[in-house]
Structure formats: structure tokens, C-alpha cells
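Lab notebook: predicted structure, single chain.

Context: the supervisor wants predicted structures on file for every construct in the current expression panel, including those that have not yet been purified. This is the next one on the list. No modifications to the sequence; it matches the entry in the shared construct table.
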Amino acid sequence: MKIMQTIYAFDVSLFIWVMRRKSQKFLVQGARYVSKTGDGHGYLLLALLLAWSHAPTDWLLLKCLAMGLAMERSAYFIIKNLCKRDRPPVALNIPSFISPADRFSFPSGHTSAAFLMASVLSYFYPALMPFAFVWAVLVGMARVILGVHFPTDTLIGALMGSVVASLAIRMLLP
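Prediction complete. Output recorded below exactly as produced.
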């Protein structure tokens, strides 16, 4: 149990350090923009573009994304409602820069979905890997900067999205 207390103390310290940078308007504005790219609208647009394509690889990519997102969203809701970790504004009485969609913070759904997308896209289009993973990392960082997640929420979200992407790829590819 002492290890969990140590992790929590580090998590809170890192979160408070990040939140002290909130006076930097540019950082918060950039975080708002990046966070919005992980809201899901872009995923729908990508799905429509892939469905419009007649390339067999794009159809397989679309299937991997659909299966991965179905598994990731299911795991996300189950874990979030089992853990019931309060978001930083409630746990630490520190205001956030945006209103979260739900009450609990662990794991970060934005981050897990972003890492799932980055992992699957990188598998099918390796040249996109650096851009995809930089974007996914920025989504996770934005969620902390905006005050709606602790760093470990995004770390576990990244791990969860990457693992689920790997599972979806292995299930659909021979």
C-alpha cells in the first residue's frame, strides 16, 4: 500500500507543478486545441474517409480501428466506473480550464483513444508513426495542462490504448 501512496504523492506533485504553469495563456490555449482534436470528431472523419476508399488496406485499417475503439471504449467505461477516481478539481480543490464530460478521471479516455489511433495508423502507415505518436502524447499532456487528469491517468490511458490496438491488429490480421 505504501507504493500506491508514493505514486499518488508523485502524481499530485507533478500535477500541481503543471498547474502552476497555467498563467501561460499560450500553453492553455494550445492545450484546448489539442484536446479538442481527441474529442472524437476527427475519428469519425477518418472513418468516413477510409470507408470511401476502395483500397483493401484502408478497409482493414477501418476494421481494426472499429474493433479497437469498441474494445477500448468498453474497457474505459468499466475501469473508470470501477476505480471512481475523482478528477483533480474535486480531489485537490483546484479549478480546471475546461469542464470534463464525466466525474471520474482514471483512465484518460482521450489519451487511450489517441494512442489506439496512433498505434493502428502507425501499423498500417509506418511513415505516419512520428506524427501520430507526437499527437497522441500531446493529447495526453493537454488533458493534464487543462486540469482534468492526473499524469498517471494519461499514462495508463496511453498504455491501455496501445495494448488494445495491438490486440485488435492481432485479432484481424493473419
